[in-house]
Amino acid sequence: MWLGITASAWVQLALYMCVLTALAVPLGGYMARVFSGERSVLTAIFGPVERLIHRLCGVNPAEEMTWKTYAVAVILFSLAGFVLLFGLLVGQGVLPLNPQHLPGLTPDLAFNTAVSFITNTNWQSYGGETTLSYFSQMVGLTVQNFVSAAVGMAVLVALIRGLTRHSTDRLGNFWTDLVRANLYILLPLSLIVAVALGGLGVIQTFDSYATAKTLEGSDQVIALGPVASQEAIKMLGTNGGGFFNTNSAHPFENPTPFSNLIEMVSILLIPAALCFTFGKMVGDRRQGVAIFAAMTLVFVPFAAAAIGFEQAGNPHLVAAGADPTTAQAGGNMAPATAQAGGNMEGKETRFGIVNSAIWAAATTAASNGSVNAMHDSFTPLGGLVPMLLMKFGEVIYGGAGSGLYGMLVFVILTVFIAGLMVGRTPEYLGKKIGGYEIKMASIAVLLPCALVLGATALAVVTPLGKAGIFNPGAQGFSEVLYAFTSAANNNGSAFAGLSANTPFYNTLLALCMLFGRFFVLLPVLAIAGSLAAKKAVPVSAGTLPTHTPLFVAILIGVILLIGVLTYAPALALGPVIEHLNMIKG
Description:
This protein is mostly helical.
């Protein structure tokens, strides 16, 4: 063991990162060609379809937009998606493909769910198999899984154009970017992953729920449905909303260790690949590599920490008679008696501690929100890891598109701060960074923090908020803090233990999701418009290099400082004090 982590755990983490990187590099190059309008391997297939869609929708791809027009298009498209999804959910009871005859959702739950899926958050205050029909899952949620991810990718591409263009107010065409993201990237990848998952046992059926006899002789209803098709885009689009209440811990969503690997890689694949897309589109691959390195250098230690905290076990379980010793085959114990050890509470035995901890880190780093283990059952510090990864602003890989444009906001702040420290002109990719960009970047970084802390404070001091907290003390506070961290940063995972399906929580969480999405997205577009209008500045001796290990280290430091210092008091009241209580006994 090294740093309290078994050798096999290090091997699994290293294998995961190697597979992810090997797939992300070529995918990043492919996506750069797609968004640049260049010919790709799928142009012959989807080119005519793209032109047909443009013709039917009355879109002229050559007609580019200002940042304000682009922003209006994003808002109107998202608003239309909200209205359609809200109406579908409320009227579910009279719509087709509802073999269980499930009724429509209450207005507050429908509002929360519709907001959740149009913002790419996919927070769920409901159990999927007991609440939503096949029609709602497929036509409502799965469609939004595609388009909400594509919106984030489109905004990222607009920001990249703002960085690479000069003396213009044009950032491309939102409708064209939206179509290309879906047609050339999300749909083909989802088809591949859905077929692979189906072959591994993930179900895909329109049959009614099955009934089976238990050993005791009673009847048990087994939920079925078109799962594989939703599972694929749920992962690839960094959505995370599960068909079943237990999400990817359910054997029909994630039956084997191999399906688990495919799904874990899918979570980070597009966000990681977009780093290489960025490098190619700005004409300097080193810039994309530097950002990917910064993300990875934060992610790997945090994932390792989660593994270590969970493998260390829970002294309360030891006191109850559980053996926390991790025994590996070939070690001191015979293979027949090898055991996972550590804290296995809330985890699936087919995945164990390592794959559960890596998933928890990946899903919260990537704004995905899916789970294959219950985060509420992690040790206090094990649960602190996913909470912190969200609190960094979902920029450690982050959501599809939204993660990288969030990271570029931090890059702009870092360039400004580092430039002031060493007396160099704040520049990034040939553009001077001025007061306007810093103001917009500050709004994008600080607003989610204000939402998390303000909403948490409101929930823990009001009767309506306290009524949903079932666990006392630090654990209950952690559950509330986690919920609003997840909502405001558009993640969607939950600590559980919080009764969130109430008008109070459904409304407050939905507002956090809305503001957390669009009050980051809009400042990013404003930055893109401002940078595009500027003249290019030639590199000089006073230009701070942004592709070096030193800059990567400073960037990581800025992210960690803002995240930790902003939330330190809240974390001390939750996971930290709970950990001290745990070891104190």
